[in-house]
Amino acid sequence: MSFNLDNAKGEAIITQKNWLSPVELEAEYGFSKSWQAKARMKNSTCPIPFAKIGGKQIFYDRVEIEEWLAAHKVTGGQS
User: Fold this and answer.
1) Which tens digit of pLDDT belongs to each residue from 14-70?
2) Residues 23, 34: contact at Cβ < 8 Å?
């Protein structure tokens, strides 16, 4: 998350990056990098959506992460 200054009104505007690195995902959502690596595996029971660029760089779409979290929400008494 970053803060920008709107020149017209002088008000602070909060902007969010659309794509997060593994370090940023860990900082914002608390998923450790080792957990992320396990969740990206094909045989994961709870695969996390991600993009792989150039065969090495991993990025997470913020909207897809929010949707993924909502889809895996557990309510009272479920495990």
Assistant:
1) 677 899 999 999 999 999 999 999 999 999 988 999 999 998 999 999 999 999 999
2) no
Q: Which residues of 28-38 are buried (b: 16+ CB within 10 A; e: fewer)?
A: eeebeeeebee
Tell me, yes or no, if the pTM score tops 0.90: no
3-state SS, the chain, equals CEEEECCCCCCEEEECCCEECHHHHHHHHCCCHHHHHHHHCCCCCCCCCCEEECCCEEEEEHHHHHHHHHHCCCCCCCC
Task: Say if residue 25 is exposed, middle or buried (CB neighbours under 10 Å; 0-12, 13-18, 19+).
Answer: buried
Count the neighbouring beta carbons within 10 Å of the beta carbon of residue 70. Answer: 8
* Best CA proximity match to 1, nearest among 30, 25, 22: 25
